[in-house]
Amino acid sequence: MIARLRKLFANLMICALLWTVQTKPAMANSIPTKSDEVWIVVGVLAIGAAIGVGVYLAVRPHSRGITGCASSGPNGLQLVSESDQQTYALTGVVGGIQSGERIRLSGKKRKEYAAVPRQFLVEKLNKDLGPCTAAPAGP
Fold first, then answer.
1. pLDDT at 112
2. What is the pLDDT of residue 62?
3. Has residue 137 been placed in a domain?
4. In this predicted structure, what is the pLDDT of residue 138?
5. Same domain membership, residue 118 and residue 79
6. Which of 29, 44, 67, 99 has the highest Cβ tally under 10 A?
7. CA angle at residue 100 from 97 to 105, to 5 degrees?
8. Is 40 in contact with 22 (CB distance < 8 Å)?
9. Is 8 within a domain?
10. How far apart are CA 105 and CA 128, in angstroms?
11. Are residues 88 and 108 in the same domain?
């Protein structure tokens, strides 16, 4: 997603730069008209806005969180993610996490080896959202 936004931003910058290039030679005795002044201001504002968006996308923190239901597993605590329904073994800062609680965590998803189940390296317990709701039984 970020790579796509960066590519779009680069393409917009190239188009803006090419659009500002004049094809006719500049004349020393020409006086800019009111229309020329308006377009200059619009160009400066557009370039400023593009730079601002680019800086925001480059600097903003990337959300690396997961929300789900914690439970006890064969290798300790595990979490079933609400977004992708994957089960992650929890590692890292798991001291405040209790089995049966719906929680929001910050950290990193890890899958180093095919034999090892997915892991989530917990950096911070963001929020305890209460007890997990029981899923309805299927037919």
1. 66
2. 63
3. no
4. 36
5. yes
6. 67
7. 40
8. no
9. yes
10. 9
11. yes
Number of independent structural domains in the chain:
2
Cβ count within 10 A of residue 79: 26
pTM: 0.49
Which residues in 25-134 belong to E strands, given as ranges? 65-73, 76-81, 87-92, 101-110, 119-131
Distance (Å, rounded) from C-alpha 47 to C-alpha 27? 25
| pLDDT tens-digit series, residues 2-59 | 778 788 888 888 888 777 776 666 666 777 788 888 999 999 999 999 999 988 888 8
The rounded distance, in Å, linking the Cα atoms of 129 and 17 is: 49
d(CA 126, CA 82): 15
Check whether residue 8 and residue 38 sit in a common domain.
yes
Q: Is the dihedral of CA 41, 43, 49, 52 positive or negative?
A: negative
User: Distance (Å, rounded) from C-alpha 40 to C-alpha 13?
Assistant: 16
Does a structural domain hold residue 81? Answer: yes
